[in-house]
């Protein structure tokens, strides 16, 4: 009897449990569907990047901001406050149409958990004023508590303002992608084609919990660029393009030797070139693809020269932020594009003092054709 009573108790308990599970499943699914209904509709196309109605498009390149360095010291947070002043002044003086970050946005190896907080802090002045941006990551952006993917997710939380992407998860690095650039909107054109392409590569690097990471643009990325640029060329024809990544390729060492002797080259030359560890052929690929006009890098904070590799302009940007090594005057590089004359681009450095320096190509010099 006790035995059958025990069984009855167990069966009652099982029934109660079943009813409880059924109710909780029902309620959970209800709350999920309510949640789902409030999420924005996915796959909404992001607005294209276009020249304005006057045919102009101005980019400001911010390099090596190094936010979040040494957060438990006095000087670390003080540096971030100064970096924000540099950013706000540059935005006010230049009012760009588009912003590009060329790596080392933060000093990730010194981050505590929640390192992405600093991504949000550095993006705040851009988000507040509605500036759109795209970025590549540098060797200092990661650390034991911060991954490239976490940074990407933090950036992408700003929706349409962020154009940073990872187009192929099987490629080493994250920020390997391109943005097609269009003329101002025109109702009379039915099948619109871009007028320009901006390429972004991840030169990787840095140290995380697994140790030192590869410090170069992977050869699979170079191969992807070769194939993709050929595909775009067959679809859209040869388009002028700009290229952005963080660590200079090895060719920059030789190019730096030419800066002082080539009268067409100009800018700040006060730092060593510390190039990518491997030469995976990115410069050759860029040169052979055709259409590549200018390459912009950061990484070596005291270099801000522009010179040439074959027919391609190659430019460094000095550091913009107060984190990271060096005491060179901070600055941003301004790339002023005119759709009527994409063959002849100009760029210059706007220093934190407000002074404009290093116009490139140099004025009053007859350029080679
Ligand atoms: Zn740096």
From TrEMBL:
Entry annotated with the keyword Cytoplasm: no
Signal sequence, renumbered to the chain: 1-29
Keyword terms of this UniProt record: Signal
A Pfam family matched in the record: Metallophos
Domain Calcineurin-like phosphoesterase: 57-302
InterPro entries (alphabetical): Calcineurin-like_PHP (IPR004843), Metallo-depent_PP-like (IPR029052)
Protein name according to UniProt: Calcineurin-like phosphoesterase domain-containing protein
Species of the source: Orchesella dallaii
């Amino acid at each position: 009897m006790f035995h059958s009573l025990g069984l009855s108790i167990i069966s009652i308990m099982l029934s109660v449990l079943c009813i409880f599970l059924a109710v909780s499943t029902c309620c959970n699914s209800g709350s999920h569907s309510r949640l789902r209904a409030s999420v924005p509709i996915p796959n909404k196309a992001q607005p294209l990047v276009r020249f304005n109605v006057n045919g102009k498009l101005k980019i400001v390149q911010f390099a090596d901001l190094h936010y979040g360095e040494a957060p438990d010291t006095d000087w670390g947070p003080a540096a971030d406050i100064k970096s924000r002043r540099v950013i706000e002044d540059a935005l006010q003086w230049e009012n760009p149409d588009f912003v590009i970050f060329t790596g080392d946005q933060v000093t990730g190896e010194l981050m505590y958990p929640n390192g992405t907080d600093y991504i949000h802090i550095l993006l705040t002045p851009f988000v507040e004023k509605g500036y759109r941006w795209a970025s590549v990551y540098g060797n200092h952006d990661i650390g034991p508590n911060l991954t490239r993917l976490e940074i990407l997710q933090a950036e992408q939380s700003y929706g349409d303002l962020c154009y940073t992407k990872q187009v192929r998860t099987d490629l080493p690095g994250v920020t390997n992608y391109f943005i097609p650039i269009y003329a101002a909107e025109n109702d009379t054109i039915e099948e619109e084609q871009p007028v320009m392409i901006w390429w972004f590569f991840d030169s990787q690097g840095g140290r995380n919990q697994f140790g030192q990471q590869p410090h170069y643009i992977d050869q699979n990325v170079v191969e992807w660029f070769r194939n993709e640029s050929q595909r775009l060329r067959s679809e859209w024809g040869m388009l002028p393009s700009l290229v952005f990544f963080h660590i200079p390729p090895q060719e920059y060492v030789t190019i730096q030797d030419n800066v002082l002797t080539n009268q067409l080259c100009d800018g700040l030359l006060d730092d060593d070139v510390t190039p990518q560890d491997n030469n995976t052929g990115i410069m050759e690929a860029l040169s052979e693809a055709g259409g590549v006009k200018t390459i912009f890098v950061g990484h070596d904070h005291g270099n801000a020269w522009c010179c040439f590799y074959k027919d391609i302009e190659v430019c460094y940007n000095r550091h913009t932020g107060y984190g990271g090594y060096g005491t060179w005057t901070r600055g941003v590089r301004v790339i002023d594009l005119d759709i009527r004359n994409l063959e002849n681009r100009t760029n210059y450095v706007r220093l934190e003092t407000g002074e404009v320096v290093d116009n490139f190509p140099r004025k009053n010099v007859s350029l080679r054709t």
